[in-house]
Amino acid sequence: MSKISWPLQTNPWFNLATEDWIFNTLDPDSHTLFLWRNSETVVIGRSQNPWVECKTDKMEEDNIFLARRQSGGGAVFHDLGNTNFTFLSPKDDYDQAANFTIIINALKKLGIDATLSGRNDMQVGGKKISGSAFKHAIDRSFHHGTLLVNADMQKLGEYLNPHPLKLKAKGIKSVRSRVANLVEFNEDINHEVLSNALIEAFCEYYGQTVAVDELDEASLGEQPTLNKYYQQMADWDWRFGKTPQFSHRIETRFDWGLIDLHMEVQQAVIEEVVIFSDALNVELIDLLKETLTGIKYNREEVKAKLDELAKADTDLKAQIDDFCTWLLSEMKGWGFLIR
């Protein structure tokens, strides 16, 4: 049995939640094709650091989503010019080559000759038009990826090139490739045209004609499990808190002394703070270290804790305020996205 799902939503948290929901409730005897696209979003892999991969301050300014997927791989920028696909299969009948064959056959219908490039990517004319990632469970597997239809290539650089924040990070870093949009090879192609070609190629491959299920936000209320996955995808702790361990060092000089701040961050919590300083007031340095240790690596919590410290110790308020203003300016965009 085969099945096709096509969401009307472009919210990335909804779409990634739907993907997880389909994966975890998949009929073990079925092959499913899920086609979707996102509003402007940076999607990072499960083991990536958003502060290393993204300009989070620019994303905040432009109201760009940040999403973390369950699978591995690198950071990608999605907009409505991307068509995303997910093939879900029983593990004992999983055939990655078949999935690529379906995509290649769909593109041939549109006059485009695509070829595999390595294990994960597809290309046309030597340029990458698709990347993939994979996930496997005991009895089921999925293969998902993106096809560049008419994506805004300029924004690939605007949001995926991080600031030099002096971060020494663990985890997976993205590798940039030469990319192209499919409209360069067929100017009439768009999301609907491509999706229809993919659906046709999918049905032809499996020798079946199946109805398309259209999913929307109302599905969250009808499916409690789907709503649970959505809440996870939207949650700060999933998008930022799952970040691998990394170190961050920044420094400045105030009238009252030098501050050389080192922070060790694990799962977006500041676990260790070291401050080197020539300030005369040793108590101030100890208080700053104690205040920052054990809190979330984001501006909102840092500001709240430092404001609390300044109120509690009025003799040191001026220096604490100096430190807070500086640190918040350095932290612009760190896990403080409004979406």
Please specify the SSE layout and strand pairing:
Layout: E1 2-7, H1 12-25, E2 31-36, E3 41-44, H2 50-53, H3 56-62, E4 65-68, E5 76-78, E6 82-90, H4 96-109, E7 115-117, E8 121-124, E9 127-136, E10 140-148, H5 153-160, E11 167-169, H6 191-206, E12 212-215, H7 218-222, H8 224-234, H9 236-239, E13 246-254, E14 257-266, E15 269-277, H10 282-292, H11 299-312, H12 317-330
Parallel strand pairs: 1-2, 1-12, 3-4
Antiparallel strand pairs: 2-6, 3-5, 6-10, 7-8, 8-9, 9-10, 11-13, 13-14, 14-15
Helix pairs in contact: 1-8, 4-6, 10-11, 11-12
Short description, anyone?
A hairpin with a 2-residue loop joins strand 13 and strand 14 (257-266).
Shape: elongated
Largest sheet: 8 strands, mixed
Proportion of strand residues? 25-35%
Structural class: alpha+beta
- CA radius of gyration is 23 Å
Helix content: 25-40%
User: How many angstroms separate the termini?
Assistant: 38 Å
Question: How are the strands of the biggest sheet laid out side by side?
Answer: 7-8-9-10-6-2-1-12
DSSP E strands, number: 15
The number of helical segments is 12
Whole-number mean pLDDT: 85
Low-confidence stretches at least 5 residues in length (pLDDT < 50)?
163-167
How would you spell out the order of helices and strands? EHEEHHEEEHEEEEHEHEHHHEEEHHH
